[in-house]
Amino acid sequence: xxxxxxxxxxxxxxxxxxxxxxxxxxxxxxxxxxxxxxxxxxxxxxxxxxxxxxxxxxxxxxxxxxxxxxxxxxxxxxxxxxxxxxxxxxxxxxxxxxxxxxxxxxxxxxxxxxxxxxxxxxxxxxxxxxxxxxxxxxxxxxxxxxxxxxxxxxxxxxxxxxxxxxxxxxxxxxxxxxxxxxxxxxxxxxxxxxxxxxxxxxxxxxxxxxxxxxx
Amino acid sequence: xxxxxxxxxxxxxxxxxxxxxxxxxxxxxxxxxxxxxxxxxxxxxxxxxxxxxxxxxxxxxxxxxxxxxxxxxxxxxxxxxxxxxxxxxxxxxxxxxxxxxxxxxxxxxxxxxxxxxxxxxxxxxxxxxxxxxxxxxxxxxxxxxxxxxxxxxxxxxxxxxxxxxxxxxxxxxxxxxxxx
Lengths: 215, 180
Known about the structure:
With 215 residues, chain A is mainly alpha-helical.
């Protein structure tokens, strides 16, 4: 029975991982040791020469006639995509999709902050004049659209956009602080105004908490 | 498909069919299924030719397709067997045991049939079809080190099994006792 080191050495030789001089050493060892030869020869013989495969007659012709007529033997043209291995390309595509989503979401959030900052009723008291109509462009929906465009190929954009719409609905049901919609101002049209808060109620953004008593 | 394409396709079939059929037959152990798989492999290769990267070996690419097609057939065969057993109410521990080999001990299939499926696949693809570890790992959806482990364990198991009944004398196998 081969010891552990010999077994590892022969395994490495079977894997084809040994440099030529060490491989020759293993071969000599297998030739000269009757015990090793007895143990390994059947396995080596099996791995080196499995039974020959006999091809069924006429199989090649059947396969040649079975190829659909619509196929053309055009190989992917060499280009930037061809230079990237398929697995790496998949990874790169997912990363690009994620980056595009984050960029769009962040852009939408900043735009919404700018909008809410400039139209803040505290900073600028609401005017009585009719404000222009606003169409909301949701970053969630934009995000979904970006994902579908980045994934590309035969993927339908509908699920991504539906996901974006669902997220928008969810975000709409949350408090105003989490509202991340980007308003897009359109030309003059009637817009319903929010009712003004009663003047006698304290502004809840300036609640003064009692001082913490240290023990 | 134009005439030139058809000629080129015929050339591809002539050049790679033997290897494709051999992979399918070794994995499936059924000539009819291997023939169907070989045909499916070439049709699939034509459908996906735009995905082939000319910087890599076409031979390995088409062998990968053949292996995947064979594995799909093995999985559906296993599902059918499980369903039949369930319908017959005979599901027991036998379904988890490797199938009993019908080949003789002088046939390589007899020995490979004794192995677990991942070990058998790793040995067939690595030793009989010279597929590199990375491609086997990709096909079997396993880490490379796991493929190496399957390969080493499979070889060890084969060695132990063969040592019980096979003797190597004068450059040929001598079967000591028939394997039950």
